[in-house]
TrEMBL record:
Chain's gene name: MEI1
Protein name, entry field: Meiosis inhibitor protein 1
Any one biological process term the GO annotation gives: meiosis I
Lineage: Eukaryota, Metazoa, Chordata, Craniata, Vertebrata
Stored InterPro entries: Immune_Signaling-Apoptosis_Reg
Length: 302
């Protein structure tokens, strides 16, 4: 089925949302819900379809060409298509890297536009934000060096509140600029305050990957970003004051991140002791899977 569905997608136009959206969803789930052997073949089939990738390029570009909806919570058919497009693109990046699959057609994207889609949200639905963040995380994990992706455009993110960084820092973080990093971090922090579970999972994962990327490029910059005092205020905002409030997956993962990069001004021995006490008093068998995984990583980091 991958052949006729992917060929059908390649013959569509970006505005054929009613047909494209379920078709792209089928391609996405074909990649994820299959055996590793079949997964490798599926990736090869999709990446060899030039017309599909050209269509996917046009779909992604519609993200910043269309006007924002009047109601951010409403997911229109166009928004649903964009979600499917970004998730499929992120998956293709991931699996192309995993299997080192040959690429017949690249995707070209302006990094500033992708970042601005997150930084300047303009009433985007939560699911669309999650999809773009997933794609951004996939790009960061591959250090912007995927043979499937060509980064175009200059570092022209607007609206940054940080002072102009030195060219040396920008060169170390290339293709990111220091002002883009700070704008992205602040925007991700603001998204966490929404306390939406799906959004929180995507944002925390992106923060983890971003700091890892920064640490690989410039350790001083990574430690500076991880130790921003605003992080501590964010933690207090996320803690709802209820019982076992520290045992929220996103809180545990943030604590683990700050521990990993030795941000002692963000997480103190007191918070560590509170988490250990709550974990000791909890019925571990009844904890949600996401909480159990996050707690395991936190304890390993401690």
């Amino acid at each position: 089925l991958l052949f006729p569905v992917s060929n059908l997608c390649g013959k569509c136009r970006p505005r054929d949302a009613d047909l494209l959206q379920p078709s792209l969803n089928f391609l996405y789930w074909s990649l994820h819900q299959t055996t590793p052997c079949s997964q490798q073949r599926a990736v090869a089939v999709l990446l060899s379809n030039v017309s599909l990738l050209e269509l996917l390029q046009k779909v992604l570009e519609c993200t910043w060409l269309r006007s924002p909806p009047s109601e951010p919570a409403y997911l229109s058919s166009e928004d649903a298509l964009l979600c499917s497009g970004w998730l499929l693109a992120a998956s293709l990046l991931l699996y192309q890297h995993r299997y080192n699959t040959e690429v017949h057609q690249t995707l070209s994207l302006d990094l500033a536009e992708v970042l601005n889609a997150v930084i300047f949200r303009k009433k985007k639905p939560i699911l669309l934000l999650v999809s773009i963040i997933q794609f951004l995380r996939a790009v960061l994990r591959q250090n912007f060096s995927s043979p499937l992706l060509v980064i175009v455009g200059q570092n022209t993110a607007q609206g940054a509140t940080q002072p102009q960084p030195s060219s040396l820092q920008d060169a170390a973080l290339h293709p990111l600029a220091m002002r883009q990093v700070f704008s992205l971090v602040v925007s991700l922090q603001n998204l966490l305050v929404h306390k939406d579970l799906l959004l929180s999972q995507a944002v925390v994962a992106c923060l983890e990957t971003l700091v890892e990327y920064l640490y690989m490029k410039n350790q001083d910059v990574a430690l500076h970003v991880a130790s921003q005092p605003w992080h501590r205020f964010l933690l207090f905002t996320l803690l709802n004051g209820g019982q076992k409030s520290f045992l929220q997956p996103e809180v545990l993962r943030l604590m683990t991140l700050f521990l990993k990069y030795q941000s002692s001004n963000i997480i103190s021995q007191k918070e560590i002791s509170q988490i250990l006490q709550e974990a000791a008093e909890a019925n571990l068998a009844e904890l949600p899977e996401a909480t159990s995984r996050a707690l395991h990583l936190f304890l390993c980091q401690v």
